[in-house]
Amino acid sequence: MPRRRPLGWLGAGALLVAGLMALPIVSVATNIFSSGTAGTWSHLASTVLPDYIVTTLWLCLGVGSLAALIGVGTAWLVTHFDFPLRRSFEWALVLPLAMPAYVMAYAYTDVLQFAGPLQGWLRATMGWTRADYWFPEVRSLGGAVVMFSFVLYPYVFMLARSAFMERGGAVIEAGMSLGLSPWQGFVRVSLPLARPAIAAGVALVLMETLADYGTVSYFAVQTFTTGIYRAWFSLGDRVAAAQLAMCLLGFVVVVLALERQSRGQARFHGTGLRRQPPRGLALTGWRAAGAIAACVVPLCVGFFVPAGVLLHLAVTDGDAQFGTRFITLAGNSVGVSVLTAVLAVSLALLVAYARRLDPRALTRTAHWAVGLGYALPGSVIAVGVLIPLARADNLLAQWLQSTFGWHTGLLFTGSIAALVFACLVRFMTSALQTVDSALHRVTPHMDDAARSLGLRPAQALRRVHLPLLQRGLLTAGLLVFIDVMKELPATLVMRPFNFDTLATQVYTLASDERLAEASSATLTIVAVGLLPLFVLCRQIARERP
Predict the structure, then answer these.
(1) What does pTM read for this prediction?
(2) What is the distance in angstroms between the CA of the first residue and the CA of the last residue of the chain?
(3) 408 occurs within a structural domain
(4) How many domains are there within the chain?
(5) How far from 340 is each of 207, 261, 334, CA to CA, in Å?
(6) Is residue 52 part of a domain?
(7) Which domain holds residue 458?
(8) Is 155 in contact with 71 (CB distance < 8 Å)?
(9) 10-residue stretch averages of pLDDT, the chain, 545 residues long
(10) What is the CATH number of the domain that holds 379?
(11) Do 435 and 472 meet the contact criterion of CB atoms below 8 Å apart?
(12) Is 425 among the domain residues?
């Protein structure tokens, strides 16, 4: 067996990247037992902390259950049954992913509130007054559960559908030959085999729910995320904010642990019949109508209705912000997104390539540490980044002034550098997974051939691998670009003074009940979010049986 060559700067660079990505966790963790402003933590623990815990638990339970029901149900329908529009639903059901949850919350509040068009139409038609009828309050915990569930269920849908497809139709047909009905086959055969994929999808949904700030803040739902912002901005206590961030991080760890525990010692392996696609059972009459309705409802609720509301506001009421201000906001969003995407793809390539050349424990650990960011809510990352960078900024400014007489101000937190770093930590996982997938498709014989020709690792990367990785790198960059465009929690905390993006503008205007003025920025975010979904839809279309 040939001896592995030392990686040199390549391995050291991967370890450095891993250290930087782990910095926010270390920063937050060091404040667990610190003492901040006198009495702040005691006040929080005795007043609002129990509410944060209970509300967050109910939110996770409701969103996880409803998103699993919608995602698994629609995936089962489009995989195992044949009905009109089924092939369209296979790709259309992922469209709600382009709609940020906070955008959906703003749109439905405008429609469903007391002064909105729906209740106004009911009062005008039925002659009712406010005391004559009851209408559910959209800005509530139940409303937040519905918003998150209908915008995030595609995570469960995609993973469950892939699991149903991969297990093939032979297993289902074997169950039916033993006398199982389609429903019994689903409950006793398909569902147990797809359980790991469903658990992973629900875990993704819950992590996105825990990371959200715009929706829960707008709906006045008291979760850990809103508590972190209140402790930081209202109480001015960064230590209390960091301690709340660690509590939120604990929720994320519990979610991931439960997802892993749900698998137990079970192993799910394919057979020789694995690639045989399921044969769709033809549905007609009321059964076909029911299947279509089951797919149309989440698609309309999660995408078409809020998109239609925003488009109507933009066309009829107009957007006073559209013009020079809009161009500035779009330029800020695009600038931060492009810079983050380029850095993320470059660093992900460095880490993935180092692990490919030398998969020893050190590089595997570095690879794992870099991928932790996606499991961290943006608010946790913002707190973890801002605390050390603020200290570094002050020390650097003092040193430059005392040594050279330069008054530089805050170089990191006073510019977009801190914001870009926070987004890197948050979304490096998307780039790393995509680059890993692209590298795995390059046969290891390419590495051996390059080494036999005397090429060093960096030369082989530039001359052999990069030409083969172009599509994967572009895909990784696109995914990071879209994620940063939609990111709200970290952007609200980390943005410099007088620096707004489309996401922060939407949040500010919607919070002031000026949704019409936010419509152009909102539609831009949604339209940009559709770009990676088109790529995903093409991939789904190629997987059709």
Answers:
(1) 0.76
(2) 43
(3) yes
(4) 1
(5) 22, 34, 10
(6) no
(7) 7-33+339-500
(8) yes
(9) 54 80 79 63 75 88 92 87 85 85 86 83 83 82 91 86 67 58 62 75 82 83 81 72 76 70 53 50 83 91 89 76 77 88 87 77 77 70 79 80 74 79 84 74 65 66 70 77 81 80 82 77 82 67 55
(10) 1.10.3720.10
(11) yes
(12) yes
